[in-house]
Amino acid sequence: MVDMRRDASASRSALLDVLTRRPAARRPMWFMRQAGRYLPEYRAVREKAGSFLDLCYNPELAAEVTVQPLRRYDLDAAILFADILVVPHAMGLSLKFEEGEGPVLQTVRSLDELAALKPVAQSHEVKQVCRTVALTRSQLGPDKALIGFCGAPWTVASYMIAGGSSDRVVAKIAAYQRQDWFCALIDRLVAESVDYLCAQADAGAQAVQIFDSWAGDLVGTELDDFVLKPIGAIIAGVRRRHPDLPVIVFARGIGAHQSRAAALPGANAIGIETEFDPSLLPADVVVQGNLDPVALLAGEKVVQKEVERICASLDRRRHIFNLGHGIRLGTEPAVVGAVVDAVRRFDG
Ligand code: CP3
Is 344 an active-site residue? Predict the structure, then answer.
């Protein structure tokens, strides 16, 4: 006889269950940067695609690398293969990824430069990303969730202002001085991010993550006005069109202010970096994280110990297992498998 309960749990995503506070079949798990150069099958597709951006805008190949980690590992979610810099690129700024150097992006540092930018919604870039979303969703079973994402306004603005990843000081100065073009840029990125995330949800993304990788740059009223409020505004904007879409906020490095991020209306879960102690968060918050990606370079024994420490400290009903930041280049694929096994073993 078919066990209906088991069938029911297998046909639903544990990730979506935890995000929406329903009983979940198990502790959900996925990893930031789970698709990437540490996987030989990724490197093969990347070579076929040409450049990293060619891969991002090729729906067949981007969908393929999105699902690759789920073929290897018993994960609960795929994350769309794209980049946070798709938004400024779709707005019309030139973008290149230099091998070994990171992104090189055309800069915006005035109201005139800002006014010349296009809305992302009808752009070729966003259409291609949405095709990837739809194609990926069609390749995943019902127990695997598809996560869409965007960068938060502060992090994306800091790349747009610096012209790449090298120097965020110039962006911080603009924030402290509250330059008119800087404030307008943040507002514009809020609006474009809402449209971008809604387009991903329309195409089949079942949850979204907002990455504010450089949130820890700001403090005081600048943290409020350029990190927390813009993220809150994106969530509110997305909620108007997709009231039930779960949103995960990863605002790296904001320490004790995480509790305020946790209180953002509509944030279903808070992603935390390795250095953050989850016991500082209110007990009812859904926490995502926070295994050190460097522990994966230290080998399977270290991974085992760290997985046990993290799982023991977090109630599995309110925990999404993840890393504190993305998987690093040079990580052994077998060690990623050891993380997955250790989490599943811990939960029995
Ligand atoms: O997590 C995933 O597997 C989904 C895909 C994804 C990528 N980038 C692919 C990528 C996601 C969610 C991102 C987010 C992203 N991109 C962030 C926020 C998260 C974080 O890491 O803090 C940021 C800051 C970026 C900007 C970015 N993209 C940089 C600085 C670089 C160059 C540095 C590097 O790691 O190479 C990228 C390139 C990038 N984005 C790669 C991948 C797989 C490597 C490109 C390659 O294959 O050559």
Answer: no
